[in-house]
Amino acid sequence: MSDSAHTSLDLPAEIARRRTFAIISHPDAGKTTLTEKFLLYGGAIQMAGQVRAKGEARRTRSDFMQMEKDRGISVSASAMSFDFDGHRFNLVDTPGHSDFSEDTYRTLTAVDAAIMVIDGAKGVESQTQKLFEVCRMRDLPILTFCNKMDRESRDTLEIIDEIQENLAIDVTPASWPIGVGREFVGCYDMLHDRLELMDRADRNKVAASISIKGLDDPKLDEHIPAHLLEQLREEVEMARELLPAFDREAFLEGTLTPIWFGSAINSFGVKELMDGMAQYGPEPQPQKAEPRSIHADEKKVMGFVFKVQANMDPKHRDRVAFVRLASGHFLRGMKLTHVRSKKQMAISNPVLFLASDRELAEEAWAGDIIGIPNHGQLRIGDTLTEGEEIRVTGIPSFAPELLQSVRAGDPMKSKHLEKALMQFAEEGAAKVFKPAIGSGFIVGVVGALQFEVLASRIELEYGLPVRFGQSQFTSARWISGPRADLEKCVNTNKQHISYDHDGDPVFLTRLQWDIDRIERDFPTLTLSATKEMM
Ligand code: G4P
User: Which of 76, 129, 199, 241 is most buried by a 10 A CB count?
Assistant: First the structure.
């Protein structure tokens, strides 16, 4: 184990105790409820119900936007830190809606592991599958939580089979449910030979945990009705025959996922899941970068921006760049080099995100997420170092799949609109193109709902009603190559040229034929559907 990338005996204890992860799930599977229970056990909130508003607000589209408007809630949920059993957990929120796959992908570049929540009655749903594929691209270790076991749910082996089949990953039961629905009494902890009993009367109570000596222990008869006990013995025997045993190496490599069964709303199985993350989850992992990768135990501080959020507080036009620290021990007031501009920045007001509060971060370690308020210097993909010229790689910008034109409801306000759009472009919330000829803007997104969210944010944050409309274009390609050829191409195709928020030329068209034509006429130029965020 010691030579694997996942564990290093040499990591300073402060770094080794960090677990930075995200929760992935299909809407309604119970992510918000589980998050809340995590915070409860982590001592970050006093009472269940404090983050509840988010789950409720997410029910419908318009409510979802209301949640977006309610920056206080969505912001505190972007990254949360809390302590659990000697570990520091950093939970990074993945946006809830499938339309935000781009944002989600970038969020997952900032974590070392993921918890996949599935609904015991529904199994693997579409959004879970998509998010899982993203985790797989990064070989992230995944812990699975099968939720809502207090309700009628599917057969345990069937659920496990479905995960193995649909997601092509081995599954090992960390716990085994006893009874289903109304008859559900708790779980047998397969990793520690313990009986965990659910208390239906008190939803916030930690389950009673009883140590037993295997499945023949007579103590079991005292707590489990005979027919359920018989069934448990049979099923566990079968599971042990058919399913792989827990193997930490395989888990860390992302080829095996341990599954816990529980009920988030009844606080059941949650502590065991957290124990699993603390005990088996990965320490802060090396970060891919050029010209070399960054290791968490390096003395010098390095970090990268994976998310930018503008207008967190509508009263101040601040932006917060979310930075994942890849190495070192950060202290408030430190001067870091912003590698893209080669400028120094004194980081005097970094924030840590604790449940519902922002707090000044006096210090932070590799693995932590800090927020750096700034006026737009920090962009997604930027690297901060103590002087070294190194750039974190692998934070992509996706090709926009939908293009629409946008105009301010009031034509006198088009400068304001430009400002708002540029801000969202820098956040990575949309691609914004300014046509070389004519007025107005073209906005490109990955999912249709993003247009609605943008319109609602522009109105709320900038007081500007806007109208999105059909664009004559359907594809965007960034053009690069020798300057003279680039200029010639731009000048002879003006009606197709726009500029992105960095001022880089983009070729817009609705015909593949046009793209082929440019490639034929200008063989030295490259037309690319994506642009790595730098
Ligand atoms: P999400 O963030 O993944 O979208 O899910 P969320 O936690 O908001 O949960 C979705 C619904 O499932 C909520 O019900 C929640 O109470 C319920 N739920 C979560 N965990 C469990 C569980 O272990 N057992 C059962 N039976 N239900 C669970 P809702 O009716 O939509 O909202 P509410 O009225 O309960 O607040």
Answer: 76
- Ligand 1 site residues (CB inside 6 A) read 25, 27-33, 55-56, 58, 147-148, 150-151, 263-266
Q: Which atom of ligand 1 is nearest to the CA of 117?
A: 3
Assigned token pair, 82 = 């809390």
Of 25, 26, 28, which is best to mutate to test ligand 1, by the most ligand atoms within 8 angstroms of its C-beta?
Answer: 28
Note whether 175 and 272 are within 8 A (CB): yes
Residues 441-466 have pLDDT tens digits of 999 987 777 788 888 888 888 889 99
Give the predicted TM-score (pTM) of the model: 0.82
Q: Report whether pLDDT(313) > 80.
A: no
Q: Report the mean per-residue pLDDT for the chain.
A: 86
> How far is 324 from 16, CA to CA, in rounded Å?
16
Task: Write the secondary structure of 121-158 as one string of H (helix), E (strand) and C (coil).
Answer: CCECCHHHHHHHHHHHHCCCCEEEEEECCCCCCCCHHH
Pairing verdict, β 505-509 and 475-480 = antiparallel
From ligand 1's centre to the CA of 9, what distance in Å? 40
Based on C-alpha coordinates, what's the Rg of the chain?
Answer: 25
Q: Cα separation of 461 and 455, whole Å?
A: 10
Quick one: 7 exposed, middle or buried, by C-beta within 10 A (0-12, 13-18, 19+)?
middle
The Cα 152–Cα 150 span in angstroms is: 7
Task: Give the pLDDT confidence score for residue 99 in this predicted structure.
Answer: 53
Q: How many angstroms separate the CA atoms of 332 and 335, rounded?
A: 9
Residue 3: per-residue pLDDT:
38
| Closest ligand 1 atom to 151 CA | 26
Return the ligand 1 atom nearest residue 34 CA.
Answer: 7
**Could you tell me if 65 and 453 are in contact, meaning their C-beta atoms sit under 8 angstroms apart?**
yes
CA distance 251 to 171: 9
Q: Within 13 Å and on the Cβ side, how many CA atoms surround 71? A: 17
Domains, the chain, ranges and CATH?
13-181+243-280 (3.40.50.300), 289-392 (3.40.50.300), 399-532 (3.30.70.3280)
Residues at the binding site are 25-32, 93-97, 147-150
CA distance to 132, 138, 446, 496, per residue, from 430 (Å): 23, 24, 8, 19
Summarised one tens digit per residue, pLDDT across range 148-198 is 999 999 999 999 999 999 999 999 999 999 999 999 999 999 999 899 999
Distance between Cα 315 and ligand 1 center (Å): 33
Q: Rounded CA gap, 221 and 15, in Å?
A: 44
Ligand 1 atom closest to 29 (CA): 3
d(CA 457, CA 437) in angstroms, rounded, equals 27
Give CA–CA dist 501/119, Å, rounded: 41
Quick: pLDDT tens for 250-304. 999 999 999 999 999 999 999 999 999 999 999 999 999 999 999 999 999 999 9
